């Protein structure tokens, strides 16, 4: 990595103000590597390095930095530096920057935008948060169906420099309506005198600006596209969303789902988005995200204690039952968490749909029965040695029923949440485990009361 190889040398060049040599040393590296290098530098060195890099390259490096570091740098750069930086950022990166910044910084950024960039930014910000319109870029290359391949390639050479990608170009009519997409390879390999129309098959996919970004991620994954066109209700081509931006979205989705699986609340601070960096996250933010579910689960687990209290006579008559309680409860919670995790992943990838719930219910019933019987046989041996035949039988039956019940709860809860329009990831492992605990206590001591 660049920061491991050249950090001392870069600091020396900055100290000696050797800007020409500094540029020459850095521009051969990918922008993401230089962004990693900037993170390792002191604040004054970061500002100097960013200021003296080539303008377009500097914007690319800046877009790779974390929002926290971007905010710090914006507070140190002059207004003229920021104006140049905003002008050189891609529109989608500019939107991401504005969305991540505090309100006072956002107002400053708007005041430094050129009239054209301000108009473009406001147009993109008019789309709902999390929509494809917020992530699209208007920097693409379009061509006309009646052009020859030679003319189309000449147009790409002139206008492709500012495009987000030229691997795919888009065929539009005189009104800007999308007709098809064609790869650059198709154009290069065709005869110069052929028309663009002769290469068209009118088989393309597109998205609305109001589509959810998760839909764009799924479409890029399904079709293996580098970019997907974005159109309005009349089919007019507005922009494109590219795979690099959607990879960032996919990372945010996975981060958010993992946080929900760990019962880290998104409701307490939705405006903050998912926690991207635990190291940089503020303590109040981490507290707000975690306290809601922890307190809620305290009250949920009261029911487990109430269930134990209700069977105090049974426990007094056979104290050995308490020995097996943690074992049975934990086994049920683990089984439920496993089932919930598998279903959540299947729902997220599209492998399982909402109307597959009955099929998955039957399958989970068979699997959990086999698991319960196996675990019941194992725990029965311990029960026989600790409390005799009757205790062994109670523990074995309880294990079978608890594993089955907990697994079914873990499997069904994501489906139920999705049915009512909630995020299935809210079926977090702690929530499933808490419900499994309550069911386990009731099943175990009800069996014990009936058999002792």
In short:
The protein has 21 helices and six strands. The protein is mainly alpha-helical and 452 residues long. The protein folds into three domains: 125 residues, Alpha Horseshoe (MgtE N-terminal fold); 105 residues, CBS-domain, CATH 3.10.580; 169 residues, SLC41 divalent cation transporters, integral membrane domain (Tetracycline Repressor, domain 2), CATH 1.10.357.20.
Notes on the structure:
With 452 residues, this protein is mainly alpha-helical. It is built from 21 helices and 6 strands. The chain has helices at residues 2-15, 19-26, 31-39, 43-52, 55-63, 67-76, 79-88, 91-100, 103-112, 115-125, 132-135, 149-159, 184-189, 213-223, 243-261, 283-310, 312-317, 321-349, 357-387, 389-419, 429-451; strands spanning 142-144, 168-172, 178-183, 207-208, 227-231, 237-242. A hairpin with a 5-residue loop joins strand 2 and strand 3 (178-183). It is elongated, with a radius of gyration of 30 Å. Residues 267-271 have low confidence and may be disordered.
């Amino acid at each position: 990595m660049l920061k491991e190889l050249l950090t001392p040398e870069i600091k020396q060049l900055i100290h000696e103000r050797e800007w020409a040599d500094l540029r020459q040393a850095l521009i051969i590296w990918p922008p993401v590597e230089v962004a990693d290098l900037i993170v390792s530098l002191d604040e004054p060195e970061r500002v100097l390095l960013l200021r003296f890099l080539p303008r377009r390259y500097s914007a690319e490096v800046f877009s790779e930095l974390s929002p926290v570091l971007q905010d710090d740098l914006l507070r140190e750069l002059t207004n003229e530096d920021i104006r140049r930086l905003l002008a050189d950022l891609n529109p989608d990166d500019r939107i991401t920057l504005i969305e991540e910044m505090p309100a006072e910084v956002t107002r400053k950024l708007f005041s430094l935008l050129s009239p054209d960039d301000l108009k473009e930014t406001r147009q993109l910000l008019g789309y709902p948060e999390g929509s494809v319109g917020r992530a699209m870029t208007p920097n693409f290359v379009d061509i006309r169906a009646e052009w020859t391949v030679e003319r189309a390639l000449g147009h790409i050479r002139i206008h492709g420099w500012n495009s987000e990608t030229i691997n795919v170009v888009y065929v539009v009519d005189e009104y800007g309506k999308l007709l098809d997409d064609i790869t650059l390879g198709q154009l290069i390999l065709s005869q110069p005198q052929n028309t663009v129309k002769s290469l068209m098959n009118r088989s393309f996919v597109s998205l609305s600006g109001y589509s959810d970004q998760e839909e764009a991620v799924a479409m890029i994954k399904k079709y293996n596209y580098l970019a997907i066109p974005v159109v309005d209700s009349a089919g007019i081509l507005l922009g494109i969303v590219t795979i690099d931006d959607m990879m960032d979205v996919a990372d945010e989705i996975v981060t958010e789902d993992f946080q929900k699986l760990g019962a880290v609340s998104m409701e307490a601070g939705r405006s903050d988005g998912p926690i991207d960096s635990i190291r940089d996250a503020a303590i109040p933010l981490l507290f707000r995200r975690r306290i809601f579910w922890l307190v809620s689960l305290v009250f949920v687990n009261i029911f487990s204690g109430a269930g134990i209290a209700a069977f105090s006579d049974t426990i007094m008559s056979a104290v050995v039952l308490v020995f097996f309680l943690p074992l049975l409860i934990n086994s049920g919670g683990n089984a439920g968490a496993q089932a919930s995790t598998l279903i959540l992943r299947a729902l997220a990838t599209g492998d399982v749909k909402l109307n597959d719930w009955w099929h998955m219910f039957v399958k989970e019933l068979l699997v959990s029965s086999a698991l319960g019987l196996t675990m019941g046989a194992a725990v029965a041996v311990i029960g026989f040695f600790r409390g005799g035949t009757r205790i062994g039988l109670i523990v074995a039956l309880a294990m079978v029923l608890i594993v089955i019940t907990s697994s079914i709860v873990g499997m069904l809860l994501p489906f139920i949440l999705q049915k009512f329009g909630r995020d299935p990831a809210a079926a977090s492992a702690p929530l499933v485990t808490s419900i499994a605990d309550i069911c386990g206590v009731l099943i175990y001591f009800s069996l014990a009361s009936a058999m002792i």
